[in-house]
Amino acid sequence: MDELPDQLVWEILTRIKKTNDRNSLSLACKRFHELDNEQRQSIRVGCGLDPANEALTSLCNRFQNLAKVEITYSGWMSKLGKQLDDHGLLILASCCPLTDLTLSYCTFITDVGLRYLASCSKLSALKLNFTPRITGCGILSLVVGCRNLTLLHLIGCLNVTSVEWLEYLGKLETLEDLSIKNCRAIGEGDLVKLGPGWQNLKRLQFEVDANYRYMKVYDRLAVDRWQKQCIPCENMLELSLVNCIISPGRGLACVLGKCKNLETIHLDMCVGVRDSDIIGLAQRSSNLRFISLRVPSDFSLPLLMNNALRLTDESLKAVAQNCSMLESVRISFSDGDFPSFSSFSLSGILSLIKMCPVRELALDHVYSFNDVGMEALCSAQFLEILELVRCQEISDEGLQLVGQFPRLCVLQLSKCLGISDDGLKPLVGSYKLELLAVEDCPQISERGLQGAAKSISFRQDLSWMY
């Protein structure tokens, strides 16, 4: 090894991905230690960083080319030592050529620390996960300095109340990935401030804290601040909306109808979504590959609208007719005690299977899917992964048909009351399945799974029934 040129040793080091292996190799000799110090570009540290600022200084002095840094204090307690503070961010900003920074559960960080990071002109990705002392002013000062920011994730940042930073980012037109989750003071109406920034946005995740927002009267009118307008979101590839209010003809409803290049759509408990929204989406998004719909049940719809709104088979049939590249479908209903019988029927679900090359199908609490549906899947030429959760209308008779599915290799069953070991008997010894995972199904035993697949996963916790 001593005769190998540095460039070749460098190439070898790049192929070692595990941190523990890299650390061990760097201790083998002085030469490897120095090369690893030069090459190491990413690091992840946590509660073991103690004392935090001194330890961080030592790491930055050793690894002087750190571009990607993740600091997480998940599970932190005061006895583990003081957390990283604003001075620690000053050390990072001064010593590292940062391009990607993630701060999780860093409760000592304030706006002062973000202002230090504003000097990192090359910073392109920032993720803040539960940094409760951060406000909108701190984020604004950062985005003013970091003009190349393409990714911004804010999760559980409860004190971010102003959104001037969002308007500033929109004017820069550099943002490609925006995620805002459970930031209580930021509502759907605030997204309009992104303005021209919608043009380059490729990925949007927006999640509202539903338990908090339904207690606030003004949230009912949040979408009214977003009047009808043209939203330039043609480059959007992935859209995820959770607990959002979709107002007809404005706001996020406009976004749904403009994403002509969309590949992934996830709508989870979004109140106000109509068939016309999904139909318009399907007609414009021929590249759609993944769709996930979690629908409020009949008894869980909040009284935010004048009349009850629900999606029907018309939505699914429009997706089936227009999205010929659809590969993954996930449909679920909320409220285990009150399932919805009046939304998607078996006919609508099967239209997706018949007309699209669906490789993965996941159904959660879909009472309309029964043994007849399982029989229909025998002709699903592309189906490889099937996940059934709380699908209580499926019996052993339907489960026994799994052996006839042409390409199925993964089957996951969870909280299904109507199936037992008898339903799995045709699979025993066939090893047709690569993986069979069973969780919390009271009539299926671990013994009944033996030999039913090449790989078996079993868990039994019936507390959900009581």
Oligomer: single chain
- Strand tally is 16
What summary fits the major beta sheet? 16 strands, parallel
CATH architecture of one domain: Up-down Bundle
The N- to C-terminal Cα distance equals 64 Å
> pLDDT average, as an integer?
87
Model regions low in confidence, pLDDT < 50 over at least 5 residues: 215-221, 299-308, 336-340
The fraction of residues assigned to DSSP E strands is 15-25%
CATH fold name of one domain:
Monooxygenase
For the record, the CATH class of one domain is Mainly Alpha
Query: What's the arrangement of strands in the largest beta sheet?
Result: 1-2-3-4-5-6-7-8-9-10-11-12-13-14-15-16
Shape: globular
Q: How large is the radius of gyration?
A: 26 Å
Give the fraction of residues assigned to helices.
25-40%
Helix count equals: 17
Which structural category fits the helices and strands?
Answer: alpha/beta
InterPro entries: COI1_F-box (IPR041567), F-box_dom (IPR001810), FBXL15_LRR (IPR057207), Leu-rich_rpt (IPR001611), Leu-rich_rpt_Cys-con_subtyp (IPR006553), LRR_dom_sf (IPR032675)
Protein name: F-box domain-containing protein
Pfam family, one: DUF7885
Which key terms come to mind for this protein?
466 residues; alpha/beta; Monooxygenase; 16-stranded parallel beta sheet; 16 strands; 28% helix; 18% strand; F-box_dom; F-box domain-containing protein; LRR_dom_sf
